[in-house]
Structure formats: structure tokens, C-alpha cells
Amino acid sequence: xxxxxxxxxxxxxxxxxxxxxxxxxxxxxxxxxxxxxxxxxxxxxxxxxxxxxxxxxxxxxxxxxxxxxxxxxxxxxxxxxxxxxxxxxxxxxxxxxxxxxxxxxxxxxxxxxxxxxxxxxxxxxxxxxxxxxxxxxxxxxxxxxxxxxxxxxxxxxxxxxxxxxxxxxxxxxxxxxxxxxxxxxxxxxxxxxxxxxxxxxxxxxxxxxxxxxxxxxxxxxxxxxxxxxxxxxxxxxxxxxxxxxxxxxxxxxxxxxxxxxxxxxxxxxxxxxxxxxxxxxxxxxxxx
Length: 288
Description:
Strand 3, helix 3 and strand 4 form a beta-alpha-beta unit. With about 290 residues, the chain is of the alpha/beta class. It has seven helices and nine strands; from the N terminus they run βαβαβαβαβαβαβββα. About 30% of the residues lie in helices and about 15% in strands. The protein has a single domain (about 5-285), classed as TIM Barrel (Alpha-Beta Barrel). The chain has a nine-stranded mixed sheet with strand order 6-5-4-3-2-1-7-8-9, with helices on one face. The protein has helices at about 35-45, 60-75, 90-100, 125-130, 150-160, 180-200, 270-285, and strands spanning about 5-10, 50-55, 80-85, 105-110, 140-145, 165-170, 220-225, 230-235, 250. Helix 5 runs parallel beside helix 6 and helix 6 (about 180-200) runs parallel beside helix 7 (about 270-285). The two termini are about 25 Å apart.
């Protein structure tokens, strides 16, 4: 990769949920118009073509997302957008905007919580989007935690039957440790899911040819935190699990142009790296 063509804007560090497996540190910080405008100016000048809104829960700051997208489109009408969300804050206003602007949306699901009773429920808002959204613009991310692997196949099938054509399988890295018997069960379940996905023509991002180019959950891209700090990936969100802090490339508010980009190094704490490696080995053994 010579340089990224994607910009990740951390819209907010706030979240409406407190998932026990989420490694992102939360705070009350949110992005300002000055930060997102300057980040987009720099990115657009460098020829960037894709912007992802991330968090926290980005839809907590929907007006900022809408303003940022409008600002970017004035710079370049061909820029594409994606939002990663837990989906709980979807409403008609947001749905109409997503459909009108053809914004990509990835909705995360897990197999936990007091309202989960063994099977994922698709909200009416999501059902509406699945009916109306341009094919390929709506994806699911299915989070699997230790102890929940027996529920994976059935709930993958729920999402498939609902109409999702791209489902990212995300066994939890970083925060929760997998024991050997749980990894064996996960491997068996993933193999069954992979076979089902092939039979139904469902894409499994992160499996197959591109898996060696991806680190779990996080991405190589220009990434801007709420305060304007610029990084070469969004690994900085994992500071609590890193052996050393992610290298900062500057702050967009004081930069004249994007700096030279090189693949950032990321060293996890020893215990985290050991757990990650065992899980990666399981994922690498699954065919797409």
C-alpha cells in the first residue's frame, strides 16, 4: 500500500452501549466542525475517495455526520461514505438520509445482553433499509464472544435470511481470552458458517485472499481522532492494549498537507498478543 485512499473520522468517543468486549476507550469527546472540515480538506487535496464515520457510536452525532458528508461532497461529488454503527439509533430521518445519499452502513450484532434470548431480532428500521437500500450498501458485523459459539451458525442464518449479503464475522480480540476448547468449538462453527455463506453467495470480509492484509477489527487508513490528531491507522483506539502508544502523524488543524504515510507498527502487550495469535490461527484456517 503506497498510501491509504480511506479516511476514518472518529466522530465521537461516546456510546449508548457498554459492551463488555469492546476495546475502544470511551469518553465524552466528539469531533468539531473545524476538525472534520480540515481533515476533509487535507484528504480531498490528496485525492482520497472514501470516508468512514466511526466511534464510539457515530449516530449519537448524526448532525455532525450529515454536515461532514455535505462538506465533503462539495469538494468531490464522487466521495463515498460508510458508517459503522450498532443500529439502535436508526430512525426515519437517518434512514431517509442514508437512502438519499447512498451511504454505506455496517450494523454490528452480538449474542449477548439482557434483551438477547438466543436469536437476533431485526428491527423494523433495519428491515426497511434492507428492502430499500442499494445492494452492497448495507452490511452486518456479527460479534462472537467466548461461550457463545454454539449460537453462531443459527444467528448467521438469521442475518442471511433477513437479506444481508455481506456479514463480517468478528470473534472478540483484545479484551476476552479464548480457551483451547472454545477455540476448537469456534473453528468448527466457523467452518459450517463459511460453507453456508458459499452456498448462499454471502460475502465474508476478512476471509480468503485479503485476510493476510487485514488486522482484526482495525484498518490501515488515514484516521483522525475527535481532537484532530492524525494517525496512519485506527489502532490508536486500542491504546489500553498496546505495548506502546500508536505513533501520531500530527494534528490536522496545524498541517498544511497530509504527511508521508508508511505502514504503522503495532505491538500489543504480551498477554494480548498471545491471545490474538491463537485466534488468528483459527481464522486463517477457515476458507472463504
